[in-house]
Amino acid sequence: MSELLEHVTIDTADNPEISVIWLHGLGADGNDFVPIVRELDLSGLPGIRFIFPHARQIPVTVNGGYVMRAWYDITGAELVRREDENGLRASQLEVEAFIAREKARGVPASRIVLAGFSQGCAMTIQAGLRHPEKLAGLLCLSGYVPLSAKLPTERSEVALNTPIFMAHGRHDNVVPVNRAEMSRDLLVSMGCQVEWHEYAMQHTVCLEEVQAMSAWLKKVLG
Prior knowledge:
By secondary structure, the protein is an alpha/beta fold. Helices cover 30% and strands 23% of the residues. It has helices at 36-39, 85-104, 119-128, 151-154, 177-190, 207-221, and strands at 7-11, 18-23, 48-53, 57-60, 66-69, 112-117, 137-141, 163-169, 193-199. It has a seven-stranded mixed β-sheet with strand order 1-3-2-6-7-8-9, with helices on both faces. α4 (151-154) links the parallel β7 (137-141) and β8 (163-169).
């Protein structure tokens, strides 16, 4: 895939030294998380390039085949039965293309963060833990591990050293918290470095979570 997906880019300074690639949830687009740039307190860090790709538009089975932006098809409410492996792997290549572009711009993998919400969180894990270099971190919000049976053999060796921030709402009615807990436990059992947070919220993002993300980003990027 030679052409990058359409995307929104926000630089916090000239010649950014850090890149954050942020993946949206089902049916949204890259604009969904643009406000997070203003809400995160990242004072003291070098310039950051935030990149918000728009997923391709595809029919989504669980929504009656309605065409919307999605990283992969969802066949049912249980999320992980009959997963869209082809879609996941195709979008993984799309994410890899953004990582490659940032490296070509002079930002090393060790200064690139993958972030995502819901489906975007699943894609962050799908791509981030298979990337052959250690990334600065994976920011995983309100999602789960896709293709979980294949991850232990497909993950890259260096991925075990990539810091992972996982956050979830205890009252999430889209991705149940127990699904996220199972994902967390799988990652921990593999030896991943997971920092877990949960909040009294549904399938959304809260202020307390934004503050925790800010602290974590300063820690892994400082």
